[in-house]
Amino acid sequence: MSLTKIFIGRRCSIGIPVMGGGLGLRARQACGSSSFVRQIGIIFRPTIFVLTSSVLIASILLGGGTHSGFLSDVLLQLAALPLLCVAIIKLIDEGHDPELRWPLVFIAAVVLLPLVQLVPLPASVWTLLPGHKVVSDTYVLLGEQLPARPLTLSPTATWLSALAMLPPLAIFLGTVSLDYAKRRTITLILIAMGVLSMFLGLLQLAGGAGSALRFYAITNRTEAVGFFANRNHLAALLYSSMLFSMLWSIEGTIRLGRQTRRNKIDSLDFLLLTCAGVAFAALLAGQLMARSRAGLMLSIAALLGGIALAASDRRRTSFASGPARFIIGATVVTIIFSLQFALYRIVDRFSADSVTGDRIAIVRNTIAAARTYMPFGSGLGTFVPVYQMFERPSDIGVAYINHAHNDVLELWLEAGLPSLVLIAFYVVWVVRRMTALWGGDHPYQIRSFDLGVVRAGSIVLVLLLAHSLVDYPLRTYAMAGIAAFCTALLIPPAPDQNGGDAVAGMEAQETQETRKRLGSQKTHRSRTAGGTADRRRPVQPRELLGQSVSWPAAWIRTEANCEVASASSSDVEIRSRES
Questions:
Q1: Partners of residue 29 on adjacent β-strands
Q2: How far apart are CA 294 and CA 193, in angstroms?
Q3: Which residues pair with 149 in a beta bridge?
Q4: CA 194 from chain center: how many Å?
Q5: Residue 16 in contact with residue 25, Cβ under 8 Å?
């Protein structure tokens, strides 16, 4: 497409969604050229996929830690800015989408939460806030006048927490702007990053506690951690990638099953099934190697989710149980070959009593601190100093408590009642979307495999939310980015720029393929019954050579000329006989 066709055109329309409601501001004007926003949106449309993939990969490579303020955090936040700008421009270009109304409301509330905590308050106001008496007493002991202070106890930590939202927010908006084909490609990227992290964990185990491949100073020195600082977060990446690898294995099994019935196997589909199966086995073996108790439990749930994906596929036929059998068989074989190396490590891991000791004390102290700072919280990012004020001497040990190992409790402490409202809002929205997707009442008729991608993303979300009740995987950029990607999968792509729906085109293509297959089956049945169905197209008359040439009248063959020619030929034949 030339630049003239892009920049010169038709009647233009700009749609700006309003965060607080379902109305949209629609400004229309008749102009000789398209709007600037539309021009930028068309030019940057292929760039969104590249930027989204790049930010997600960078989040996994650089965002495996939970401490904020490092150089890697700054690089990730800077890398997310171009994607965030381009995605916002594309959303404005497409106009108001009803599917994005409540997610945008939720995003606006999440972004405003730390900003409100940073607003300076006069001393007559912040001294009345619950839990702030210790701050005012400190100023009194120092003999200083009470200054204006924000709601948060640590403005620096809250600023860092606000900036940490940039990469996940950019990934979410970027994924929403992508079609189903590009979303499928990102799932392959996640599988590849999971396998790469698993092999890195193997090298870390081989290198021992002093391995140079461990990228964080505070980490599990004797465990496989991959690109992370904590083995539990590596386990979260592995079971998330494992679920998508099971989905691709199901797709390869269904394709090969159809081709087997036709006695014809495509080499690409066979390669797809082989690669997906090998990736699934490698990720499952890596999960056993990681020795994360929560990871092992949630991996079992992921396996059950993969079987549910196979059973709920709309393309079920006589070989519908093939994907489920493949997943179960691959799981059994992998466990048999892996347990002989990891059984002792797993048993030793589950024999530890830290779950009933340290975790209970952390939960008790966190609840006590959250009640003290109700209803506004102590400020995002202030868990460590606040928790230390409520920690009992008997609870102090060798371990350093940097998080509550329960994101709900930690957010309750840091953001108070508003955080609980936002969590409830998000959970209700996810449950409603999952009910529609798994109940068959999804908003768009999409291809079976794309529906499987969305359902797999919903399962990953449930696993991550369950994991957040006993740990803090979403405190890392890597898992927060994956959660943002899976959340965006629940929102169908917007209609394309030509006014059509890309999803409808995919469904039409699948329907056309189904009709062709059914038509061939009907033809085969009619022939076997004794009838013949001639499905060939009628032959169009072709132009004879020289038919369009203007020949002399005497040369043109007519009925009169044919009679004269036949009479003359008869006379010639009679004369030849007489002679």
A1: 12
A2: 21
A3: 121
A4: 14
A5: yes
The secondary structure of 330-399, three-state, reads HHHHHHHHHHHHHHHHHHHHHCCCCCCCHHHHHHHHHHHHHHHCCCCCCCCCCHHHHHHHHCCHHHCCCC
Backbone φ and ψ for 27, nearest 5 degrees, come out as: -105, 120
Structural domain includes residue 222? yes
Read off the pTM: 0.77
Burial state string for 227-260 with b = 16 or more CB within 10 A and e = fewer than 16: bbbbbbbbbbbbbbbbbbbbbbbbbbbbbbbbee
- Rounded Cα–Cα distance for residues 414 and 375 (Å): 10
CB 150 within 8 A of CB 42: no
User: What does the mean pLDDT of the chain come to?
Assistant: 78
Cβ pair 288, 338 in contact under 8 A: yes
Total residue count of the chain as it appears in this document: 579
Residue 354, CA distances (Å) to 269, 349, 397 in order: 47, 10, 12
**Element (DSSP H or E) covering residue 495:** none
Structure tokens belonging to residue 554? 């005497």
Tokens of 312: 């709920």
Q: How many domains does the chain have?
A: 1
Q: How many angstroms separate the Cα of 382 from the Cα of each of 112, 360, 378?
A: 17, 20, 7
- Residues 493, 178 contacting (CB under 8 angstroms): yes
Tokens of 50: 């590249």
Most confident of 258-262, 404-408, 444-448: 404-408
Residue 255: which domain range?
A: 101-494+504-508
pLDDT at 36 over 60: no
Burial bucket for residue 67 (CB in 10 Å: 0-12, 13-18, 19+): middle
Q: What is the distance between the alpha carbons of residues 468 and 461, in angstroms, rounded to a whole number? A: 11
Pairwise CA distance, residues 37 & 542, whole Å = 52
Identify whether 94 is part of a domain. Answer: no
Are 482 and 510 a contacting pair, CB within 8 Å? Answer: no
| Amino acid type, 159 | W
Which 3 state secondary structure label does DSSP give 25? strand
pLDDT, tens digit (0-9, with 9 covering 90-100), for 116-155: 999 999 999 999 999 888 888 888 888 888 899 999 999 9
Domain-located, residue 17: no
Tell me, yes or no, whether 405 lies in a domain: yes
Among 94-108, 240-254, 307-321, 439-453, name the most confident range. 240-254
